[in-house]
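WARN retry 2 of 3 for item q-0093 after timeout on previous attempt; input resubmitted unchanged.
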Amino acid sequence: MERMNPNGLTRERVQTNYLDVLERIGAAATRSGRLSTEVRMIGVTKSVDSMVAKWLVEFGCSDLAESRPQILWEKAASMIDLQVRWHMIGHMQRNKVKRTMPLISVMHSLDSSRVLEQIQQDFLPRSVPLSLLLEINVSGEQDKTGMLISKAEELLTRWQSQSGQFPALQIDGLMGMGSLNGGLDQARRDFETLRNLRDRWAGRYGLPLQELSMGMSEDFEIAIEEGATLVRVGSTLFS
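OK item q-0093 returned
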């Protein structure tokens, strides 16, 4: 008998969904002339409990993401015996920075200079640098989080002037979401815009910016075709 958790999911169903997503990632990478190993799937576990999140790790998905710091704290504590790379993908309030930073490997949602300053103030040295991604509101929609392009350029200019002062922090790339309106065609244009920004800023500011976190359950294949290296998949895994 299949084991079911309070979310109404079985282990077998989640495993089937996970393997299907991996297959779709591989096919999208092939279409864009890339290897599937160039794209990392981040399992977004905000809609499920820790038991289901643990299933993903057992299947081989070691990268998990949460959008709320408090939930990340709880799940990280309940899964401390597992090798999980936690990703923060939601807005970070400055008063939650100090407790969250030691738990995560990647922060996708750096969306202001004030939050960066708080990270610099609270951050403790670590052997593996914390990877920071700038969240860009590439569509310009008012109901979305993320920096405007001009604010991101101001942050990168300030970061460039601080070169070497924070060796345990690295700005490694950009994160963005496709427009809520306009369908997949508009999402593709948004992803292309983000990729072009990454390429331009990498040259201008002398940063590798190798990561592009873009694409979710409904559009991750298009994001991969446009250069995504990290895709954030949740609802497709847990349907």
